[in-house]
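ligand=calcium ion
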Amino acid sequence: MPGLPSLFLLLVNLVFFALYGAASSWAADTEKPYSVTAERLVNADAEPGNWLSHGRTYSEQRYSPLDQVDLSNVNKLGLDWYFDLNDHNVVEATPLVIDGIMYVTEAMGTVFALNAKTGEKVWYFDPEVPPETLVKACCQPVNRGVATANGKIFVGTLDGRLIALDAKSGTKVWEQITTDPTQAYTITGAPRVVKNRVLIGNAGAEYDVRGYVSAYDADTGEMDWRFYTIPGDPSRGFENDAMRAAAETWTGEWWKIGGGGTVWDAIVYDPELDLLYIGTGNGTPWNHAIRSPDGGDNLYLSSIVALRPDTGEYVWHYQTTPAETWDFTATQPIILADIEIEGVMRKVLMQAPKNGFFYVLDRSTGDLISAEPFAKINWASHVDLVTGRPVERPGMRPVDETRVYIEPGPGGAHNWDPMAFSPITGLVYIPTVDSRFIWQKDEEFQYTSGLWNLGYDISIPFDYPAVGTEQRSRSYLLAWDPVTQRQAWRSDGIGSGVLATAGGLVFRGTGDGRFVAYKADTGEEVWSSYVQNRGVGGPISYAIGEDQYVAIALGRGAATMRKDVVPYPADVPHANRVVAFKLGGNAALPDYIYTPQELRAPPVEEINIETAAVGRKVFHRYCFACHGREARGNRIQPDIRFSDYLDNGFWDDVVMDGILSGVGMVSFADAMSPELSEAIRQYVIMEAQKPVNSSFKQDAGPVQ
Ligand code: CA
């Protein structure tokens, strides 16, 4: 006969089973924590209480089957706990939740383990990335999260290491250097675990690298295989037939500047077909006419490539943008789903890459099923369903000094921001931007080792065509029907990645500092909570005990919600934090207290206009990625218009001698002469002398 306490527990468990079904399997078994097996990863959908991998399950739909929070009660959703993160950079992470513990990363690859019920810290790991690495991060240092297997947590660090941590204690188990430290590689993406292998890509295609994805043994850290996405120097032989075939589509001496094609985000696995899908990045240099001067599609840039997960062997590819020249990566999130198209159930792969077309592919063959524009685009009229190729409009390639106006811009119609798919509504929810850019070939382009190599002059004024407000850059959450390839609804405003739930809801953070729920089928806003920060990464949902939680790691960098000029963002209360909501939650965030910083007066020096013009061009090659277009700052690194170094006599000590390399400002002596350094100084003073209030106009969001 069971005693009273165990009878009580039995009843609790029965109620729990009734409420959550399969979710209770993890909660009832306290021996299980920290031991996520390959089998659990394959069957992750049967554990709705957990969020075991980047997109929750291998399909990466970011759909939670939890339905405790629904349309009838979402108004009772309240903050249950929050946890303040350490650093002041952008937070792009999607947290994992494994058996009651949440794992979340910060920009350099630091990891927090938190009690997912209370928000209390369990452990913290700092890989101690050298600050000098910052110059290799094209678009701010970021990290999109961890992966797990066999009691370990895997994280990629900004400086190219893959580290295995003990999930319980946070102590390091093994570490591998996955990239050549002498080159401009970084890691920003989340690893994935497939059949006891840890898969990791890298970034750096704005610099001079060759992209690849690597597989490491989850237990030992030994490298198992590596797949390069583009061919190397043919005289040194090809790694495989796929590289030999790809080399036929390149001309010139592309390998000297790397070629690009980095796998910096999407790595998705289908256990049923046993295929691995990777998304590849743009070419290096960006300008195709410089990269591959006699033409060619440049495989496998801007492509989805299917590989054998056991060997890394090539199976098929689909190239979204042949002869890519506008930074149109296809690294964007990939979602796998089985959907009915024209009466037939199809195993599809869906992607909304930067180029503005929404692609539905047959994921067993790579055949194109459909592709339609989901945002404003002007570079192509349509995708030919017979050839599978986009039909480019004439005059869209910036091959000479002519300025070419292109929609979308290099930030893309959709970037890395996690999109979600609801099997209930059949809709894909895409963080979308109608963006634009003006391209002009850099006639004076010369390769610079280890720094940006675009082949375009992006210092030119962005004198966009004088058109109505309709064509202004704008962001929105788009609900897209992948069967009809049409918009179902949209909600205006910039925001974070997206979560869809079985409660008929879609969640995202918004640019005005709220966490918002929408009715999944109509887009009606049904709930929001002010969270003091603009969410960027992907929200998640999980369950502990009887409660469904909805959580997001927030952080658009240091000075997220400031509208005024912030010269030293590191000094601003940054409010990068994880927030977790549940029904009846009644916690409160601390007050956000900000004292405006004093702006120093601009130097009174007289500027040589011609020298400053030279400085403007050099600034927009080497400096703007951190210090903002037209030196407007980026709200994360210091706004150098207000720097004392402009006129205190130590400018060259910083720029040429690298005395501030300890905070990431390395020496640029290899890239420029003292004359060019002085030209940049004069240019920045010129910008500093302009009225401050007219200056803050850009949204320097991460591009990558
Ligand atoms: Ca890029």
